[in-house]
Amino acid sequence: MLTLRSIRRRSANARCRRCGRPLRAGVLATVLLAAACSSHRPPVLEFPPPRLTSHGTQVGVASWYGPGFAGRPTASGEVYDPGKLTAAHPTLPLGTRVRVTDLDSGRSVVVRINDRGPFVAGRIIDLSRAAAERLGMVERGTARVEIALADEDTPAWPVVRYAVQTGAYRSRPDALRLARRVADLGAPVYILRSAEPRPLYRVRVGPYATRRDAELVARILHDRGHRAMVLEEHSRPGILKPGAGTTRSSTPGRTLRPPGRRGR
To answer: Which of 33, 149, 163, 262 is packed most tightly, with the most Cβ within 10 A?
Structure first.
């Protein structure tokens, strides 16, 4: 038997159910949207470290030798002296003088490359203790730095270096959009602007000292849905000639990661 009280109770319950539906639907939509956004965020991959850019600079993490290396031979044949302003770099010619600037403190030091390393992913230079003291990074162990050539007549790289081109556009905004997508993967991206009446903006990754590193990167990018061509960039020491060189397309294949690098 329906009473006034039971009718009111049923009516209130119905209103609550109707009000709850859009709320539950809204919560579900929010959860699904958040899940979709997180699932479409590209993972950061590990790429080989590039050599100096066409502007003669490189940005990355610096470390220092640490104790226990004094008196050991370096790649140049010299004996490592922690009191001298020297450093190890993966690709720069031995004897090259570079200015290393701590991007957080602004302090800088000029060092001479006399060794190879560091062999740790993500690091671009290994400093002597004396150089690390100049930057004030001994206690921290590492620092975010910029490397720049200290001598204008010093070769920044050999005549041939390798890069991976992912696109070329007449429109600068289009090139920037692609560069951002590739950079989201953790790749060292740069854009070259050709010196033409109608400029062409080339989006490239690298550059690299060896074709092997460039081909590994090309395969990673191809498997992530990007076009990838390995290029040989011919340049005078320290001066890149955009667009010059032989273009060879990369071979698509399974995802390959760069070889692991041993630490000191």
So the answer is: 163
Give, for 73, the enclosing helix (H) or strand (E): none
Measured in degrees and rounded to the nearest 5, phi and psi for residue 141 equal: 90, -40
Distances (CA, A) of 142 to 92, 130, 166, 185, 249: 20, 14, 32, 23, 37
Question: Would strands 57-64 and 86-88 be described as parallel, antiparallel, or unpaired?
Answer: unpaired
Dist. CA 55–CA 57, nearest whole Å: 6
pTM of the full structure: 0.44
Ordered by where they begin, the domains of the chain are 57-149 (2.40.40.10), 160-249 (3.30.70.1070)
Specify burial of residue 59 (Cβ count, 10 A radius: 0-12, 13-18, 19+): middle
The answer to whether 169 and 200 have CB atoms below 8 angstroms apart is yes
Report how far residue 99's alpha carbon sits from residue 89's, in angstroms, rounded to the nearest whole number: 13
Q: How confident is the prediction along the chain (264 residues), in pLDDT tens digits per residue?
A: 444 444 445 555 555 444 444 444 444 444 444 444 444 444 445 565 555 554 457 778 899 998 888 888 998 889 999 999 999 998 788 888 999 999 888 899 999 999 988 877 778 899 999 999 999 999 999 998 888 888 655 544 444 578 899 999 988 889 888 888 888 887 788 888 876 778 888 888 877 877 888 899 899 998 888 889 988 775 533 333 333 333 333 332 222 223 333 334
Could you give the CA distance from residue 36 to residue 172 in angstroms, rounded to a whole number? 30
Q: Does residue 196 contact residue 207 with C-beta atoms inside 8 Å?
A: no
Residue 100 pairs with which residues in a beta bridge? 109, 147
**193: Cα separation from own chain's centroid:** 20
CA distance 228 to 245: 16
